[in-house]
Amino acid sequence: MQRDRHGRGMRRPLPSKLFRHGTRASFFATVVADTAGWLSATFEELRELKWKIEDVPPLGPGERLRRFSADKQNMTITLYRIPIERLGKNRIPDPRIQIEQAVVGAAAELIDRDPWELIHPD
After folding, report:
1. The sheet that has 50-54: what strands, in order across it?
2. Are 120 and 97 in contact (CB under 8 A)?
3. Which among 96, 76, 82, 78 has a CA at the least distance from the CA of 20?
4. DSSP string, 56-90
5. Which of 4, 15, 16, 82 stands 20 to 30 A from 72 (CA)?
6. Strands 68-71 and 76-80: what pairing?
7. Torsion sign (Cα): 103, 111, 44, 47
8. How far is CA 46 from CA 34, 80, 100, 122, in A?
9. Tens of pLDDT along 28-39?
10. Which domains does the chain carry?
């Protein structure tokens, strides 16, 4: 099939911010790994930090949709990709920021600290 509309010739490919990093899931995993790696390297309490990524959290009746969960016994955070991507603030132009905020929030909950202390460790 030719992409020649109304005699104007071939169209150029549409620019896309969304898929320049690969798929949404691979972009999400890369941002999580980068952020968790930085937290592990920066904070002694998070040296043993492990993380998992799932699409959505398991929900029981009457439960709220969570963006992440923290397992203190195993030093593991679980990040739920779809709620983080879709329930974030639409005013944030870069999806990386929403993902980083979720990782920092989960890590802060894991060690009972305020997320702001992890962002600004001064």
Report:
1. 50-54, 76-80, 68-71
2. no
3. 96
4. S----TTPPPPSEEEETTTTEEEEEHHHHHHSS-T
5. 82
6. antiparallel
7. negative
8. 14, 20, 16, 17
9. 999 999 999 999
10. 24-55+64-119 (3.30.2010)
The letter for the amino acid at 47 is R
Query: What pLDDT shows up at residue 1?
Result: 47
49: Cβ–Cβ under 8 A, 6 or more apart, which residues? 36, 39, 40, 75, 76, 77, 107, 110
> Two tokens at 75?
């030093």
- Dmax (CA) for the chain in angstroms is 65
